[in-house]
Amino acid sequence: MKISIDWLKEYIPVTHTVEEMADKISLTGIESGPVKLGEELTGLVVGHITSVTPHPDSDHLKVCQVDVGEDEDIQIVCGAPNVAKDQYVIVAKHGSHLPNGVRIKRGKLRGQESNGMICGLDEVGVPAQYMPKEFENGIYVFDQPETPGQEVYDLLGLKDQMIDIDITPNRADTLGMRGAAWEIGATYDEKPSFKKPELDDTKVKDSNNLSVKVEEKALVPDYLVRELKDITVGKSPLWVQRRLWNQGIRPVNSVIDAANYVMIEYGQPIQAYDLDKLAGELTVKKAHDGDKLQLVDEDKVLNHNDLVVTSGDKILGLAGIVNGKLASVDENTKNVVLEAGVFDGASVRKAAQRHDLRDDASNRFEKGVDNGIVSEALVRATSLVDQFSTAKEISKEIVGNYTKAEPTVIDGSIKHINHLMGLNLSTDEIVKILDRLGFESEVTGDKLTVTVPTRRWDMAIEADVVEEVNRIYGYENLPNTLPAGMETRGGYSKKREFSNKLRDVLLGEGMDEVINYSLLSKKEVDDFNTIHSEYTKLLHPMTEDHEYLRNSLIPGLVRNVAYNQARNENDLGIFEQARIFNREKGVARPEEVEYIGGAVSGNVVNGSWNTKAQKTDFYYLKGIVDELLSFTNADAKFEYIATSDYTNLHPGQTAKILANGQVVGLIGKLHPKYQKSQSVDDTFVFELNIDALFDLNPRNVQSQSAPKYPSISRDLAILVKSDVQNGEIIDDIYANGGKYLNNVTIFDVYEGKNIKTNYKSLAYHLEFLNPNDTLTDEEVEKAFSLVKDSLVQKFNVEIR
Predict the structure, then answer these.
(1) Backbone angles phi, psi at 784, to 5 degrees
(2) 187, 378 Cβ separation under 8 angstroms
(3) Pairing mode, strands 161-166 and 512-513
(4) Among 602, 605, 727, 756, which residue's beta carbon has the most beta carbons within 10 A?
(5) Which CATH superfamily is domain 494-694 in?
(6) Burial 335-367 (b: 16+ CB within 10 A, else e)
(7) Contact in structure between 386 and 199 (CB atoms under 8 Å)
(8) In this structure, what DSSP letter does residue 724 have?
(9) Which residues are annotated as a binding site for Mg(2+)?
(10) From the record, what ranges are coiled-coil (predicted)?
(11) Whole-angstrom Cα distance, residue 720 to residue 798?
């Protein structure tokens, strides 16, 4: 909510700068900041166009003589389609400054001298979407004569100073100028004064053509309307229009502008209908499934949860949100109905979100409106319409539903209030603070009874009174005290330390950390549901792309890769450490499980004069994962088991990661079809369950001295069928190599020419070591023979 200082001056005296006021308000707990419009504007004046002639060398340009209050008219060349003689317009003279650093200079347009510019509102700082529609494609023209040469800033509100209040949801009372005046006035010990709106009694008649019915009284505690007959719809006064466009509201006509003006003034939304377009009784009820609301640019399909305003079989609008076009007020309207009501905030919020129709009105109903000023706000709107459009007859208030607004009465104790604040204020000081807020107080001994006006519906208990006294007294004035009690030693839990260690390992590997939303689309949760979780859908998702809680980190990482590769950043190594959500069938709430996942693509090493480029592959990522698993210090056997179970991973380059036979993650290359659908190049991913890794028994690490005796190595080359995995071979070598087999590494893999079809050649380096004695060739050869014999028997290998 932007609080106009010029408007605020109508209620309280304002003697401070907008910066000082914003700072002062922020200290009361409501975040605010100064807004100064049009600080860069200079040289803008009213001009009177005295003549318009066609440009001799252009079909669309016109040469205008303009009176700007100087001794002689100045000549300006203008291309606006609506420029005409005798108009009063905005003129930027030679040397003027406009928004975005634009400076106007004297010059020639197709040979004709031009000494300035005739401006549209968007050219002087009013956003195009908020200025009157009739001036969208042309210059702005004043409705009535103004003094040539007069500065236009105050006329158009171009240099209005404002305070932008960022309210918390419970302080919706400041969504109106009057409520804001109470808040700011209390800050400076100034009580606002308001003029009560009145109607011309000679026009008010006890007759009406309309009946009103509210079927959902629980959702609509107040619903009041008035009829105005034989009006003339036109433009609203300039002072109304400028206040509206500075609030981000486009002026439309004298009726709609009056309704919107009251919404900003009182915080009470007002709706207007063309009485002659109604088809019968005005009714507030629930819609039926499949009903349609016709808006200006689209139709909305409604359901039985939507609260609507109808007339006969016509749906006029969504209650508290938006009106349709069936009974809209336009320049031909002669009889109008004004509506003021209070609608259930939850119902309005859900409907506005469901149909993507949140606006200024729905925002106020969602947060709450003052049901104590509904009737007064309706009178104010009626009086403004009468003032702007001259009604011949006004009906009395027509009541669809009415709930008497009762102030909230809160009992408290002076002593207890001081105790909670840590102060020792006198009774008079506390009462004075409450009086500044417009609260009535009664004191009987130590007992304090506070009567809170209906505009402050956020207050209910003594603690609320304490908060108000604290705010106005000043949080900065509260005494400083050190916390009492035992000191606690901070630190991370064991699981958090474990998780942080894994994160540091990947950072040390040169990977970059990313953070993604925990919400995915339906397709994304389908793509990598490797844990076979039930999906968890939000009741009210913001968009279709964020409907479900994630069951894997991989979709988010793939999205990161696609984003970077689309911007020619192809050499990527990224990871994310976050929670996924696993929900078992029949369970209401998902379990949050800590995971860590990564993705690599592009080159590991870029080519240069002495090196060749090296592309990322499965084994490069496997090396990173091996390093990561080594830092878990788990007393477990980690295995990689090839699998084709995952649809969107390459069936020949994918493996499950097992710890003691339990699946703790996966690693693999994205399937080519999936890569194409996601617009990414070759990408390899992994994912590990941190919770499962943490639950593994830790390994006891003991230091030992370096071996004193030399090792003996043997190389082994074998020919084996292609479907036999390297891991199986190594496991068998360790199983038969004896107690002195210290290490086994594979150093060559070959398939192709001179090798039998469906066979591959593998070469291993075996290292034997006895830390306590010198090994003999006989011991090594004996163990080596057992290794070869076992491989021949189990895998039918050929020793080469």
Answers:
(1) -65, -40
(2) no
(3) unpaired
(4) 602
(5) Bira Bifunctional Protein; Domain 2 (3.30.930.10)
(6) bbbbbbbbbbbebbbbbbeebebbeebbbbbbb
(7) yes
(8) S
(9) 458, 464, 467-468
(10) none
(11) 7
Residue found under tokens 């990161």 = 560
Could you please state the CATH topology (level 3) that the domain comprising 2-37+161-187 is classified under: Phenylalanyl-tRNA Synthetase; Chain B, domain 1 (3.30.56)
Residue in 91, 123, 363, 368 with CA at minimum distance from that of residue 247? 363
Count Cβ atoms below 10 Å from residue 243 Cβ, excluding itself: 24
Alpha-carbon separation of residue 752 from 724, 726, 727, 749 (angstroms): 16, 18, 21, 10
Residue 654 forms beta bridges with which residues?
Answer: 668
For 570, the token pair is 């192809």
Structurally, at CATH architecture level, domain 712-799 sits in 2-Layer Sandwich (3.30)
Query: How many other C-beta atoms are found inside a 10 Å radius of the C-beta of residue 662?
Result: 12
Taking the C-alpha atoms of residue 411 and residue 422, their distance in angstroms, rounded to an integer, is: 19
The mean pLDDT of the chain is 93
Q: Which of these, 476, 479, 477, 481, lies nearest to 26 by C-alpha position?
A: 476
Q: Tokens standing for 442? A: 């009664």
Amino acid letter, residue 481:
T
Q: Which residues are annotated as a binding site?
A: 458, 464, 467-468
> 669 — phi, psi (to 5°)?
-95, 140
How does DSSP classify residue 58? Answer: -
Q: How far apart are the first and last CA of the chain?
A: 83
Give 711-761 pLDDT, tens digit per residue.
999 999 999 998 888 888 999 999 999 999 999 999 999 988 888 888 999
The residues, ordered by sequence, that sit 6+ positions from 724 with a Cβ below 8 Å of its Cβ are 795
Vertex 688: Cα angle to 684 and 690 (nearest 5): 155
pTM for the model stands at 0.73
42-156 architecture in CATH? Answer: Beta Barrel (2.40)
Rounded CA separation 779/797 (Å): 23
CATH number listed for the domain at residues 408-477: 3.30.56.10
Report pLDDT digits (tens) over 193-237: 999 999 999 999 987 789 999 999 999 999 999 999 999 999 999
Do 422 and 415 meet the contact criterion of CB atoms below 8 Å apart?
Answer: no
Helix axis angle, 360-367 relative to 254-266, nearest 10°? 30
Report pLDDT digits (tens) over 780-790: 999 999 999 99
Strands 759-768 and 212-214: unpaired
CATH code at 204-401: 3.50.40.10
Sequence ranges of the chain with CATH classification 3.30.56.10? 2-37+161-187, 408-477
704 vs 443 pLDDT, higher one: 443
CA-closest candidate to residue 499, choices 490, 511, 507, 488: 507
Side chain identity, residue 234 = G
CB 600 within 8 A of CB 683: yes
Angle at 501 between CA 496 and CA 505, to 5 degrees: 150
Q: Strand pairing partners for 234?
A: none
